[in-house]
Fold:
Amino acid sequence: MNDNLNLLTGALARVREETAKVVIGQDAPVRAALIAILTGQHVLIEGVPGVAKTLLVRTLARAMGCSFARIQFTPDLMPADIIGTNVFNLQRNEFSLVKGPVFSSFLLADEINRAPAKTQSALLQAMQERAVTIDRETFRLPPHFTVFATQNPIEYEGTYPLPEAQKDRFMLKVSMDCPERGEELELARRMLAGESPEAVLERGGVAQVVTQDELAAHCAHLGGVGVRDEIAAYIVDIVRRTRAEQAVLVGAGPRATQALLLSCRVNALLEGRDFVTPDDVKALTAPVLTHRLVLRPEYEIEGLSVPDVVARILREVPVPR
Structure:
């Protein structure tokens, strides 16, 4: 592994150490968040209230020296509440831009499916181009702009399903489950000792590991992680297989292939390697594909689920040696 990749691997390890001071457990969501940040993509987090979704993003922002903003999506939320609007200034006798929370590095879109499609679509340009258009003028967003959108998996009353075009903008979908008994007991002990995660974060218990300039430099070296032609072909075969599955109405598109390739590179670094293996592909296939597939209704009625289909594809596609 070359020096640049060693520096990146070390920085990722330190970020995870700082995050662990506040977020107990939750290795998969932390890993998914780091993958999205380093690849310039976005992540969809599904979990019940109180499992530290907001805390995770705030902690990562502190450790990586990035700005943080949170939007609580509600049915009456308007696009201008997200991207901002021009307001007339009586003193200057002119319009001035009041920027919305989208002008931040890490944006937590809390319960994104509670807003109607018109409001959800306000994020599409930002997620794809890192820019927003207000009154026919385009403004650039921070270079590390990342959307962390959350959904409640059990409460669907009063929600609006995400359009397929928007779900495809998310590189990964990851579930944030309740902690194990030992982890929850550790959380209880910290609370009793006045060392709750929120208290640790508020008093500066999480150190900044990298600056934004260093983060940009690190991201530029991801190309040093090797991907053999056989691994690339394996990824392409998996994604293309979703389009041929009889139970699948809408399969994954080429963006899924790119997402799986990029995410495997970062996962290899998190494992301390400078090359991608089939295990990286297997570990990330479900997070990359699950939210992109739509099953035919007759198969859903029979009890088949998207994770079942993804697991079957992984079993049937030949693994390169």
Summary: Residues 190 and 196 are 5 Å apart (CA to CA). The first helix runs from residue 3 to 20. The radius of gyration is 20 Å. The chain is about 45% helix and 15% strand.
